[in-house]
Structures are given as structure tokens and as C-alpha cells.
């Protein structure tokens, strides 16, 4: 179970992904996060990923594999420093929350 919270200002979203044992905070433009709707095309087996947002000032890469999404924090998608695996429904929740880009707070559990 992953809790998803999306809030922020008019231009930049703050996404908090949280489970009982970890938390990851990503900042990105709403348009970039809404672009994660293409996550299923970012097939890890084909070494494709989407670079969207930052975490602690470091790029975040998103890749899809077998119904899950790897959220990779690091300089690139091959040599990351931190990675978490979340259900693809988590990304669908982020996309839905960011599609309007209005800075409203949204929370969900996936």
C-alpha cells in the first residue's frame, strides 16, 4: 500500500509517496507529472524511462515493468542512488491529480 499526496503551488507540484516503511518526495512541474500518462511506454526491458522531477535536487526517472513502476533517483536511469517500486496505479493517481495543474491538494491510497 502506497499513500499518494500531490500538492504545491501554481507551477510546481510536490508529490509525496509513502508506505509504512519509506517516504519519497518528488518535485516537478504539473505538466511533467501529467506526462507520466505515457509510463506504460517507458518499458524497462527496452531500457526506456521518463525523466520527470527531482528528489533532493537529483533527477528522478520512472520506468515500467510487469505492472509496476520503478521510481529511480539518481544521475541517470542506469546508475541510480535510490529506487522504489510502486504499483502502476500510483502513477495513474499522480497523473489524474496533476492533469489540471491547479496546485490543489489531492491524496489517495494505491
Describe the structure.
- The chain has helices at 30-34, 88-98; strands spanning 3-8, 12-18, 23-29, 50-55, 58-65, 68-73, 82-87, 106-109.
- It is mainly beta and 110 residues long.
- It is globular, with a radius of gyration of 13 Å.
- It is built from two helices and eight strands.
- It has a four-stranded antiparallel beta sheet with strand order 3-2-1-8.
- The protein has one domain (3-101).
Range of helix content? 10-25%
Provide the number of structural domains: 1
Tell the overall outline. Answer: globular
Strand arrangement within the widest β-sheet reads 3-2-1-8
Q: What is the helix/strand order? A: EEEHEEEEHE
Mean pLDDT: 91
Rg, rounded, reads: 13 Å
- How many runs of DSSP E, i.e. beta strands? 8
The biggest beta sheet is recorded as:
4 strands, antiparallel
Low-confidence runs: none
Strand content: over 45%
Structural class: mainly beta
What's the short version?
The chain has 110 residues and is mainly β. Helix content is 15%, strand content 45%. It has 2 helices and 8 strands, in the order βββαββββαβ.
Supply the key terms.
single chain, 110 residues, mainly beta, 4-stranded antiparallel β-sheet, 8 strands, globular
SSE inventory with pairings:
Layout: E1 3-8, E2 12-18, E3 23-29, H1 30-34, E4 50-55, E5 58-65, E6 68-73, E7 82-87, H2 88-98, E8 106-109
Antiparallel strand pairs: 1-2, 1-8, 2-3, 4-5, 5-6, 6-7
Amino acid at each position: 500500500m502506497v499513500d499518494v499526496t500531490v500538492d504545491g503551488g501554481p507551477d510546481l507540484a510536490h508529490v509525496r509517496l509513502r508506505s509504512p516503511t519509506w517516504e519519497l518526495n518528488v518535485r516537478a512541474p504539473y505538466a511533467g507529472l501529467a506526462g507520466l500518462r505515457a509510463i506504460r511506454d517507458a518499458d524497462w526491458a527496452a531500457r526506456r524511462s521518463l525523466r520527470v522531477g527531482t528528489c533532493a535536487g537529483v533527477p528522478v526517472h520512472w520506468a515500467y515493468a510487469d505492472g509496476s513502476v520503478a521510481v529511480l533517483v539518481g544521475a541517470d536511469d542506469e546508475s541510480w542512488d535510490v529506487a522504489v517500486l510502486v504499483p502502476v496505479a500510483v502513477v495513474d493517481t499522480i497523473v489524474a491529480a496533476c492533469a489540471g495543474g491547479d496546485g490543489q491538494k489531492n491524496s489517495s491510497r494505491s
